[in-house]
Amino acid sequence: MDLDVFVSTHRAEWDRLDALLRRRRRLTGAEADELVALYQRTATHLSVIQSSAPDPQLTGRLSQLVARARSAVTGTRRASWRDVTQFLAYGFPAAVYRSRRWWIPTALLSTVIAALLGWWIGTHPEVQASIAAPSELRTLTRPGGEYETYYSSHPAAAFAAQVWTNNAQAAALCLVLGVFLGLPVLVILFENMLNLGVGAGLMSSADRLDTFLGLVLPHGLLELTAVFVAAGTGLRLGWTLIDPGPRTRRSALAEEGRAALGVAIGLALVLFVSGAIEGFVTPSGLPTWARIGIGVVAELAFLTYVYVLGGRAVRAGDTGDLGADERSASVPMAA
């Protein structure tokens, strides 16, 4: 393509679009229609130049022109409570539901790994000795020891806030670092399972596994599910770099990245609930069956929310991504 000829042919259209965008008065109906037509044509011109004869200066000028025109055509949109409702009812559960083929296997495999680590540590005294001295292990696992007092060592509200912050950060790291082919996600996930396995193994060796489960399960069911969802979504994001499917790698990564951001926001709310349970229910004087029952109810409520609302939203075409009117302009690609 002869770039000079192309520019000479279409410069008048670009200048006209720029002039319409600079108008301070309200456009007439005919001018508004002209602006829309010129915006669409200029977007196509930009695509042709990018694919056939890329010129940094011209590409930059047309990119700014297209962005300004899109803003004028679509207008400025403000978030509202309706957006929050839409996100909680459709966007978030749809994104989690779509990722279920990643986070469910992640949850199953991670649970097996944690159980095997707990069995290995609990049945091998030499491994326990490598973790801490016998006196320190007794301090950890005895009745009223550090494993039990940990959950009541701080005021409930402060403890719940601290737990929520730590878990939200871990979930966010899983989602953000997923773009690095998912490898950092596996490291974070293994560290979590190792901590869980160490606790289960040491308490099991002291014949206090039931106490350990009574302390972990009330909040741990929902908390670990949130971590598994974050890890699975992060791994899916990493796999998108390897196999974007029919989409371009750039558009696939943008779509999955926006959905992952929505998952991060939604999981912050889920982890707020699990943090509240860990701060107020786990160290409470309720019977063990009641504390575990609260954890089971919270877990079932979340899974029902994902499978009922999320499944319905996905079948209706929701992907957890932004709506078409909220995404960046997508110009047609030249063949």
Question: Notable features of this structure?
Answer:
disordered C terminus; 335 residues; mainly alpha; elongated
Walk me through this protein's architecture.
- This protein is an all-alpha fold and 335 residues long.
- The chain contains 13 helices and no strands.
- It has helices at residues 3-22, 29-52, 56-74, 81-98, 100-123, 125-131, 134-141, 146-149, 156-176, 183-205, 209-242, 249-281, 288-315.
- Helix 9 packs parallel to helix 11 (209-242) and helix 12 runs antiparallel to helix 13 (288-315).
- The longest helix has 34 residues, at 209-242.
- The radius of gyration is 27 Å and the shape is elongated.
- It starts with a helix and ends in a 20-residue tail after the last helix.
- The model is unreliable at 323-335 (pLDDT under 50).
What is this structure's SSE topology?
Layout: H1 3-22, H2 29-52, H3 56-74, H4 81-98, H5 100-123, H6 125-131, H7 134-141, H8 146-149, H9 156-176, H10 183-205, H11 209-242, H12 249-281, H13 288-315
Number of helices: 13
Percent of residues in β-strands: under 5%
- In N-to-C order, the SSE pattern is HHHHHHHHHHHHH
- The whole-angstrom Rg is 27 Å
How is the biggest beta sheet arranged? none
**What is the overall pLDDT average?**
84
Tally of strands: 0
Low-confidence parts: 323-335
Structural class: mainly alpha
Distance between the amino and carboxyl termini: 14 Å
Shape: elongated
Q: Helix fraction? A: over 70%
Quick summary:
The chain has 335 residues and is an all-alpha fold. The chain has 13 helices and no strands.
